[in-house]
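Q: What would this chain look like folded?
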Amino acid sequence: MKNKNVRAILIDPFLEKVSEVKIGTDLEQLYSTLGCDLITITRLGVGKDALDMILDDEGLLKNSEEQRYFKYKLFSQPFAGKALLVCSDKMGNTTSVPDTLFPHHIEKDIIWYKPSENELENTLEFKVTTF
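A: My prediction, written as C-alpha cells:
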C-alpha cells in the first residue's frame, strides 16, 4: 500500500507544545517523528469520534531524568515522550484527525510534567472539561 500523508496533532512534552503536522503513515516516519524504535497505539474514547494516540512503547522505560511526560484529559496514566493523535478507519488504517480539531482544543486538556517537579503517580492535579 502506498504511504499517504495524514493530518495529525503532535504532543511534544519536551517543548510543552501541541502542533498540527502532516505525516506519512509508514513506520520509519512515525519512529523518526516520535524519536523511538517501537510504537504503541492507544484508543482514546469510543465511537466514530474516538482518537488514536501513537506513542513510544518504551517511553516509560527510558531514563527518567531526560524523559518528559504529560497527561491528557482525565486519563489517569501519564504518557511518556512525544505522541501523535490520529484517527483510524474501519479497516484499522491511520487517517487524518477531523478538520474541526485543532491544537488549541488538545492543549487545554494537557498537563505537562518534568521528572523533577512532580511524582507522576501521586499527583492530585486534574482539569475539568466542559461539554
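The chain has one domain: 5-122.
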